[in-house]
Amino acid sequence: MFIFDCQNFIVINHFPNHVELTRKDLMVKNIKRYRKDLEKEGSPLAEKDENGRFIHLDFIPLTFMLPADYNLFVEEFRKNPNTTWIMKPCGKARGIGIFLVNKLSQLKKWSRDSKTNNFTPPTSKDTYVISKYIDNPLLIGGKKFDLRLYVLVTSFRPLKCYMYRLGFARFCTVKYNASVNELDNMFVHLTNVSIQKQGEDYNAVHGGKWTVQNMRLFLEGTRGKEVTDKLFDEINWQTVHSLKAVSGNISNDRHCFECYGYDYIVDDNLKPWLIEVNASPSLTSTTSSDRIMKYRLMNDLINIVIPPGQMP
């Protein structure tokens, strides 16, 4: 519940319609619209290569909404029948309801009514996104990982955001295997801590996490400083443009701020891909270093939103 006629001393830790960024289908929809608008304006940001791909704004995997885009998805699937796709419910988190598919028959089996030509979702309330799976992730120790980064937004118009430096990488507990026989093994494919901690190989001491600083040091040592700096510069670039893509839709209020949890996957070419944005990133800690990092996050966040010695 949001109070729109706020008194001056009140601050709220969410923007009223943050779902424009944090709901998976709306985020994709807004980024696609943002790119089209820039293209119509003739902006150099919307430049494409010879294959029709955006050069500067290609940072989300090819994605369709189901059931609305089912026919478009089928058309794309048949062009590349050996591609693996990942299905996600739009309104859920912590890896709930996610699965991988590489055959249309798997969708039909999952659908409530496989006898009709029209795709039917499992419930009338749930919509799904289906995205091309990043099947060439950068591996460390043979394991897949993603990056959880924190972004504080205090205003969308004008856009004012802060990227926190102390994020972390979350690792799978089982070595990556792209074999179709492993598509159902979520310990191979999903990095969510809520899933990985249920596995036999989960290490409660380090929680399957590296700090972003350690990740950067590793990449600088194995790939070089220049390409590592480029990777994180691209992450910052993508973050800013994802926020600009929704800035016109968000109900901006000077009493509101929000800390988002950005999830990125890095492929083996050191290209980052924005996977999703979380409105209420977990602030519970699974390790001592996790607790220290999140304590610092909250301390720094509050000092920005409410500077010391000042009223909100």
Automatic annotation (TrEMBL):
* Record keywords: ATP-binding, Cell projection, Cilium, Cytoplasm, Cytoskeleton, Ligase, Microtubule, Nucleotide-binding
Q: Which InterPro entries match?
A: TTL/TTLL_fam (IPR004344)
Q: Which GO terms describe its biological process?
A: microtubule cytoskeleton organization
* Localization: Cytoplasm, Cytoskeleton, Cilium basal body
Write out the GO MF terms.
ATP binding; tubulin binding; tubulin-glutamic acid ligase activity
Q: Give the range the annotation lists for the signal sequence.
A: none
Please give the chief subcellular localization of this protein. Answer: cytoplasm
Give GO cellular component annotations, separated by semicolons. Answer: ciliary basal body; microtubule
- Which family does this protein fall into? Belongs to the tubulin polyglutamylase family.
> Subunit structure, per the record?
Part of the neuronal tubulin polyglutamylase complex which contains TPGS1, TPGS2, TTLL1, LRRC49 and NICN1. Interacts with PCM1, CSTPP1 and LRRC49.
Q: What is this protein called?
A: Polyglutamylase complex subunit TTLL1
